[in-house]
Amino acid sequence: MPQPQRFEADGRSARVYSCNTAIVGTGAAGYNAADRLWALGQHDILLVTENRVGGTSRNTGSDKQTYYKLTLAGGDPDSVREMAQTLYEGRCVDGDIALCEAALSTQCFMKLVELGVPFPRNRYGEYIGYKTDHDPRRRATSVGPYTSKAMTECLERAVLDKQIPLLDKLQVIKILSDGQSISGLLCYDVTAAADNDRFVLIRCKNIIYATGGPAGMYADSVYPFSQYGATGLALEAGARGKNLTEWQYGLASVKPRWNVSGTYMQVLPRVFSTAADGSDEREFLMNFFRTPAEMLGKLFLKGYQWPFDVRKVADGSSIIDILVYLESCKGRRVYLDYRTNPVNGQFRYEDLPDEARDYLQRAGACFGTPIQRLAHMNQPAIDFYRDKGVDLATEPLEIALCAQHNNGGLGIDCWWQTNIEGLFAVGEAAASHGVYRPGGTALNAGQVGSTRAAQHIAARRRGEAPAHFTREARRALVEMDTLARQCSAPTGNVRTLWREAGQAMSRCGAAIRNIRQISTYCGQVEDLLNHFAQRVTASNPAELGMVFRLRDMLMSQAAYLTAMLDYAARGGKSRGSALYTDPNGTKPYPVLPDTFTYTLEQDGENRIQELWYADGACHLGWRSPRPIPEDDDFFENVWRDFRETGLVD
Fold first, then answer.
1. Is the dihedral of CA 436, 441, 442, 446 positive or negative?
2. Predicted confidence (pLDDT) at residue 557 exceeds the cutoff of 90
3. Under 8 Å CB-to-CB from 523, ≥6 apart: which residues?
4. Which of 82, 88, 256, 294 is 20 to 30 A from residue 333's alpha carbon, by CA?
5. Dihedral sign, CA of 374, 375, 378, 383?
6. What's the rounded Cα separation, in Å, for the pair 418 and 409?
């Protein structure tokens, strides 16, 4: 571990560490970046994390968490270019990034295999696969509910074996930037016992930002409680946002936070709601369907059509998401019940829609109660909840329509570098996806992006931090210390403000987006940011950490809400996982409220939205996606260039 020095500025003091590259985050992408840099000979690196065992990679999953890569089994034709085209066709995706994610998918996948992630293969060594959503091939694979957890743990072992230095319990609160290049980080030490020890500076030439998406923005969220994100800080430092409007939402349990996809829905649980106090139990879905078989057919499809998709509302499974959301808006709580069959068992398997009936028959699951069917088809799905203190055999499971993944984020080039020199965004912090993406591409993107960033840094960005570190460090230290002092009070309100902000974002800026409500709340966010030091209070060090986090959260919310308003003002319609209310549109079900009148976007619209901070305000622009590159693939030419330059620019 490098030894810290002291940094003094206007009566303030901080410990300061120096390195070439600071990697922020200890998820699968962050650990892979560190391991790749070390293997490439760049050992002047430092991992920085607020919670080494926190974050999304280690603490989330699903019924069958998917990893997406090039086909490596069977006789189905596939190629790097074809996979890149699949990713590119997700809309608003830059072609060079899609090509990189396809080209490096096999390399990154096989590294994980070598590190010990037990991806299944057949007796001949083929890594078998299956189709996932938006996937024309069988590129998907899985090790079960904990795929990303297994990845993170294997990569962590590789990093710890190399004794790569790691600083834990440091919350990044400022990226040091002059608007053109970065020079370091300012962190808050969450364990500091004295005021003069609470700030830590990292002086560096490169930052690999592996902080995940801005999960803390939403109250209704399937992200783990240990995942907050720090996108607002990067935007504040001058990084451009890209596709900020594009998210993925879906049904998830509230406690624990977990996707209720796959067999959780395919076994046809009973769905009911209650008043907030648990009274007045109702099977509300049957208010909107003509027959139990029709309702159960839609519920079954939610298993593998898990993400809310506005195209599947009118005659598809996403109407289930809408109905759950509506109950929540009434102040009611929604549950999945595996103890008894839905509608008092008043359905026959032979009356189910063909897809549901055939699947359950092939699985041998046309019998018993939902919990019996689930035990027959997927016992680990029951074991997971039991391990978390929830016994599906004896109690219902509370659910909500939750934020799950940001397809947008920070804009990057084909080396995953942002427009700020030296700032690289990897994993969910990076905007490598567009409107739609095949399931599992996020895990591949994190491994590919961190590999590309490491390759570029090792080849082109060695050396020390820019000279403007001293100026930016002084400015940031004074600003954040002053804020800490101004917000200190006998009684703190930051937890209340945090909860209210998350609830407001879930109401107006999640899967269902009402422009009038978004505009109102966006104004409230900007007002709170403008008077932050006067309105936010903290009474202890833990709450002070939340003050810094609330600041980042509000900057993120302001940017994302502004992006949504701009998208709608330019004529943007409902697409992906977002339904924009439109009084001039159509309503698929007459019984739905008027807020569910909307217009679908036409497939021909394919423009990328970018957002950046300047002069204290958000600015926006639009551009066409970069096409998939058509490089010279003549072997002798590429071999010569590779020998001479390594083809890293």
1. negative
2. yes
3. none
4. 294
5. positive
6. 11
The DSSP bridge pattern shows strands 333-337 and 270-274 to be antiparallel
| DSSP-based three-state secondary structure for 361 | helix
Residue 616: left if φ>0, alpha if ψ -120 to 50, beta else—which one?
A: left
Q: How many CB atoms lie within 10 A of CB 39?
A: 13
For 207, 239, 272, the CA distances from 475, given in Å and listed in that order, are 19, 19, 54
Please indicate, yes or no, if residue 528 is contained in any of the structural domains.
Answer: yes
Record the pTM: 0.95
The pLDDT assigned to 333 comes to 97
Cβ-Cβ contacts under 8 Å for 206 (sequence gap 6 or more): 20, 21, 22, 182, 422, 423, 424, 457, 461
**Interstrand relation of 45-48 and 423-425 (parallel, antiparallel or unpaired):** unpaired
Residue partners of 594: CB distance under 8 A and separation at least 6: 581, 583, 587
pLDDT digits (tens, 9 = 90+) for 460-503: 999 999 999 999 999 999 999 999 999 999 999 999 999 999 99
Same domain for 300 and 391: yes
Q: What per-residue confidence (pLDDT) applies to 4? A: 87
CB burial of residue 435 (10 Å; 0-12, 13-18, 19+): buried
Tell whether 268 and 373 lie within a shared domain: yes
How many other CB atoms are found less than 10 A from the CB of residue 328? 18
Domain boundary among 354, 376, 403: 403
N-term to C-term CA, the chain? 31
Domain count for the chain: 2
Domain of 360, in residue numbers: 251-403
Q: What is the mean pLDDT of residues 174-203?
A: 94
C-beta separation of 177 from 238 below 8 A: yes
Q: Is the pLDDT of residue 2 over 90?
A: no
Residue 87 three-state SS = helix
Q: What is the largest CA-CA distance in the chain?
A: 77
The CA distance from 31 to 183, in Å, is 22
Confidence of residue 134 (pLDDT cuts 50, 70, 90): confident
Based on its alpha-carbon atoms, the radius of gyration of the chain, rounded to whole angstroms, reads 25
| Domain termination site, one of 567, 586, 603 | 603
Q: Which amino acid would we find at residue 36?
A: R
